[in-house]
Write a structure and sequence with these properties.
The structure holds 2 protein chains of 2 kinds. Chain A contains 9 helices and 8 strands. By secondary structure, chain A is α/β, with parallel strands linked by helices. The two termini of chain B are 24 Å apart. Classes of the chains: A alpha/beta, B alpha/beta.
Chain lengths: 262, 420
C-alpha cells in the first residue's frame, strides 16, 4: 500500500487503448488518486476494491500527457513506451503507469536509471518486442499467388505488424503484398501505393492457419522457386559441422512452419 | 529455368559453401523508383542451415571450373568433380526471385578461375551489372575479387558492389606458396590496396559532389583458413590486427580447415575441424574490434596460441590480476569493459545507471552482467567479495574453465549425421 493514500485500494477501469491509458494518468494527477490496479472492462474485478473509477479515453488529455512525457523522455525511450504497449502483456497497463508517473515526478526523468525495476522491465519488454519484430523481418516468407499478390502468413508473439510495415513497404515498393497475423486475425495489405489494415472472414482464416497456401492459389512458378530454395539450403550446408542446437538457437522452431526450406 | 538450372544450383552452391563470409551489414540504401530492394544497414539472416551458419546472402559460384590447383580447395583442377557454369541471366533471375520471397538480402558472387583472371572477373561483373541496371536491384551485393584481375575491372565492380573481398586463405606467404604454387601475397594485397584507394577517393569526391558514385560502401573483408598450416594464433591475429588498421577493412573471417582433398601430404590429417580454436579466434577478433584490445595483449611469444579452455578475455584477466578488482561504481568505462562477464551493452548500462545510486550485485545481474565470471574481478555496493587476488588466478581458472569447457562442448556437439 502506498503512503498518503489512506491505504485504500483504488482501481481504474479503462477501454484498453493507449489513449485510455494516458487518460488514466491525466485523471490520476487531476484527482490525486493513484491506482493499485488498472483493468479493462472485461477483466475480472477484485472483490475488495475500495474505490473504482471508470476513466474515459479522451484524445486531448492523452495528447497532453504525451507532450509532458516528450519533455522528459528521449525519442528512444518514447519508442520503448510504444513497443511495450504493443506487447499487450497483462502487466503493461500498470507498468507503463508507474513508469510515466516516475518520469513526471522526477525533475530530469529517470529513463537512464537501470537500477530501477520498472525502467529495466520497460527496457526488457521493449527489447523483446524489438526482437520479435526483427525475427519476423528475418523469417517471413512470401509466396506468389495466382493473382499476383505476394502473401506471407505470420504469427508473432506480440502485435508488431505496424513496426515491420515500413521495412517491407520500402523493400518491395513495386510488389503488392499481404502480411497476415493469423493469431490476431488482422493483416496489412500493400497495393503498391499505401498500406491498409485488412482482416479475413473466419472460414478463410482456417486455410491460412495451415501455413502454406493451396497450390491452386499459387502462381505457376511458385513451387519451382520453393524447390530451388530448398535444394540450395541443403547444398550450402557443411556436413562436417552439423550443429542442430546452434541452428535452433538462432532460428527457434516456432518460425519453422513458414519456411519452405525446412 | 528448368531442372538443368536446379542441377547447376546444387553443384555451385556446394562448391561455394566453404567461404564463411555472409555479412550484409555496413550500408543502408532506400529503394529506387521502379526498382526492387533496399539495404537495411543491419545484417539480416534469413535462415540458418543445420550447421548453425547464417544465410543472409545467396552465396554462389558463377562456375566451379578452375585453372588453379590449390591443395586446400575442392574445386582445384586436378579434382574429378562435375563442372558447370551459370549464365549471367540465370543467376540474375534466380537472385531476384529469391529476394522477392524474402529468402535473402542479396548476392554473394564468387567464382573459380576460367581461362584467366580478367576473363573471369569480366563475367562476374556482367552478372552484377545485369542485376543493378536491368532489374534495378537495390539489395546487397558482395563480390569476390579474382586475384590478378585488372584494375579497370575492379573499378567497374566497385561501383556496383556493396562489399568486395579477396581471400588470403593461408596466414603466411611461405605456406601459401607451398599449398598454392600459382598464388602469392602480392596478387592478394594489390587488389586490396586498389579497393581501399577507390573507397577513399570516392569519399573525397562525395564531399564535393553528393552525386559522385559510392565505391564499395560496405568496405572489404578477407578469409584465412585455420589449421591447414602450422601458423600459430599470434601470426594470425597480428595479420588481422594489421588489416584492421586499414580504414577500408571491416572483417577478417576465420575458417576451420575441413579436409576436402585427401591424400595430399602437404596437408594435415584432422579427425575433425578445429572448431574450438576457430571460436577462440573470433572471440579475440571481437575483443580487438569492440573492446580495444591489442593483438599483443591476447597472444605473445610466451603464449603464441590462444587458450582453448578459457575465452581470451578471461585469459588476459588471469594473466593480469594486478588490474583488478575494478569498482563498477567509480571506474571509467574502458576499465569496466575489461572485466570478464561484462560486455559492451552491460558496461554502457552500468555507466549510465550509477549516477542514480551505487549499484549492487543483484542490479548488476539484472543489467546483464554474468556474475559467475565477473564476481572474481569487481567490487560493487556490498562488502567486497573474494577477488582473483585473494583466490589466486590458478583457482579462478579451475572454476571457470570447467564451466567453459562444458559450454564449448555443448556448442560444438555433433548431434546426428545429416541426411536428406
Amino acid at each position: 500500500m502506498e503512503e498518503g493514500e489512506n491505504n485504500k485500494m483504488i482501481v481504474f477501469v479503462y477501454d484498453k487503448t493507449l489513449d485510455g491509458l494516458l487518460s488514466c494518468v491525466f485523471f490520476a494527477y487531476e484527482q490525486k488518486k493513484f491506482p493499485e490496479l488498472i483493468l479493462s472492462e472485461s477483466d475480472p474485478k477484485p472483490l475488495f476494491a475500495d474505490e473504482r473509477y471508470y476513466v474515459i479515453a479522451e484524445k486531448e488529455k492523452s495528447i497532453r500527457v504525451w507532450k509532458a512525457l516528450e519533455k522528459k523522455l528521449s525519442k528512444f525511450a518514447q519508442n520503448m513506451v510504444l513497443s511495450v504497449w504493443l506487447s499487450e502483456l497483462p502487466e503493461t497497463a500498470m507498468l507503463l503507469f508507474r513508469y510515466i508517473r516516475k518520469n513526471i515526478d522526477h525533475p530530469q526523468g529517470i529513463e537512464m536509471n537501470f537500477g530501477d525495476d520498472d525502467v529495466l522491465r520497460i527496457k526488457d519488454i521493449a527489447q523483446k518486442v524489438g526482437t520479435d519484430a526483427r525475427k519476423l523481418i528475418q523469417f517471413i516468407r512470401f509466396q506468389e499467388t495466382a493473382d499476383g499478390i505476394w502473401f506471407a502468413p505470420v504469427s508473432p508473439r506480440y502485435n508488431v505488424l505496424s513496426l515491420i510495415a515500413p521495412h517491407f513497404r520500402s523493400r518491395y515498393a513495386g510488389q503488392p503484398w499481404i502480411i497476415y497475423d493469423t493469431m490476431r486475425n488482422t493483416g496489412l495489405y500493400y497495393d503498391t501505393r499505401r498500406v491498409q489494415e485488412i482482416s479475413f472472414a473466419q472460414e478463410d482464416l482456417a486455410e491460412l492457419k495451415s501455413d502454406r497456401l493451396d497450390t491452386g492459389k499459387l502462381s505457376d512458378e511458385e513451387a519451382f522457386f520453393q524447390k530451388m530454395w530448398k535444394e540450395y539450403f541443403q547444398s550450402i550446408t557443411i556436413k562436417e559441422r552439423i550443429n542442430l542446437k546452434l541452428q535452433r538457437q538462432y532460428m527457434p522452431k516456432r518460425y519453422w512452419k513458414y519456411l519452405p526450406e525446412i | 529455368m528448368n531442372e538443368k538450372t536446379l542441377e547447376k544450383l546444387k553443384i555451385l552452391a556446394d562448391a561455394a559453401k566453404y567461404d564463411v563470409s555472409c555479412a550484409s551489414s555496413g550500408t543502408s540504401r532506400n529503394n529506387v523508383q521502379g526498382g526492387i530492394g533496399t539495404a537495411a544497414g543491419w545484417g539480416i539472416c534469413h535462415s540458418f542451415t543445420p550447421d548453425g551458419r547464417c544465410i543472409s546472402l545467396f552465396k554462389i559460384l558463377l562456375t566451379n571450373h578452375c585453372i588453379y590447383d590449390c591443395a586446400y580447395c575442392g574445386n582445384r583442377r586436378s579434382n574429378d568433380v562435375k563442372r558447370t557454369a551459370f549464365t549471367a541471366e540465370e543467376l540474375a533471375e534466380l537472385t531476384v526471385e529469391f529476394y522477392r520471397r524474402n529468402y535473402i538480402e542479396g548476392l554473394f558472387l564468387s567464382s573459380g578461375v576460367i581461362r584467366n583472371p580478367d576473363y573471369t572477373m569480366e563475367r562476374m561483373v556482367r552478372v552484377v551489372k545485369l542485376l543493378r541496371e536491368v532489374y534495378r536491384f537495390n539489395g546487397y551485393i558482395h563480390m569476390k575479387t579474382i586475384p590478378g584481375a585488372s584494375n579497370e575491372l575492379i573499378a567497374q565492380a566497385g561501383v556496383l558492389a556493396d562489399r568486395m573481398s579477396v581471400n588470403l586463405e593461408i596466414p603466411s606467404e611461405q605456406n601459401l606458396k607451398l599449398l598454392a604454387p600459382e598464388k602469392d601475397y602480392p596478387s592478394v594485397f594489390a587488389p586490396m590496396r586498389f579497393i581501399q584507394q577507390g573507397m577513399l577517393e570516392s569519399a573525397e569526391d562525395r564531399k564535393k559532389f553528393r552525386s559522385a558514385p559510392k565505391f564499395v560502401p560496405a568496405g572489404q573483408s578477407t578469409q584465412v583458413i585455420i589449421g591447414a598450416t602450422p601458423d600459430n594464433d599470434k601470426q594470425i591475429l597480428s595479420l588481422a590486427s594489421a588489416l584492421y588498421k586499414r580504414p577500408s577493412f571491416k572483417r577478417v573471417y576465420y575458417s576451420g580447415y575441413i579436409p576436402v582433398n585427401t591424400g595430399d601430404s602437404r596437408l594435415p590429417v584432422l579427425a575433425k575441424p578445429p572448431l574450438v580454436r576457430e571460436n577462440r579466434l573470433y572471440q579475440a577478433d571481437w575483443l580487438m574490434r569492440f573492446y580495444d584490445f591489442k593483438a599483443g595483449e591476447l597472444v605473445d611469444d610466451l603464449h603464441p596460441d590462444l587458450d582453448l579452455d578459457i575465452d581470451p578475455k578471461m585469459g588476459w584477466a588471469l594473466r593480469h590480476p594486478e588490474f583488478f578488482p575494478v569498482d563498477v561504481n567509480t571506474a571509467p568505462y574502458e576499465m569496466i569493459l575489461r572485466v570478464p562477464g561484462i560486455g559492451v551493452k552491460s558496461a554502457g548500462l552500468i555507466v549510465t545507471s550509477r549516477h542514480y545510486g551505487r549499484l549492487n550485485s543483484a542490479q548488476l545481474k539484472k543489467i546483464g552482467v554474468v556474475m559467475k565470471r565477473a564476481q572474481y574481478f569487481i567490487v560493487c555496493r556490498e562488502l567486497p567479495m573474494q577477488t582473483v587476488n585473494e583466490l589466486t588466478p590458478q583457482y579462478v581458472r579451475r572454476q571457470v574453465s570447467q564451466k567453459q569447457k562444458k559450454a564449448t562442448a555443448e556448442l560444438l556437439q555433433y548431434a546426428i549425421e545429416w541426411g536428406e
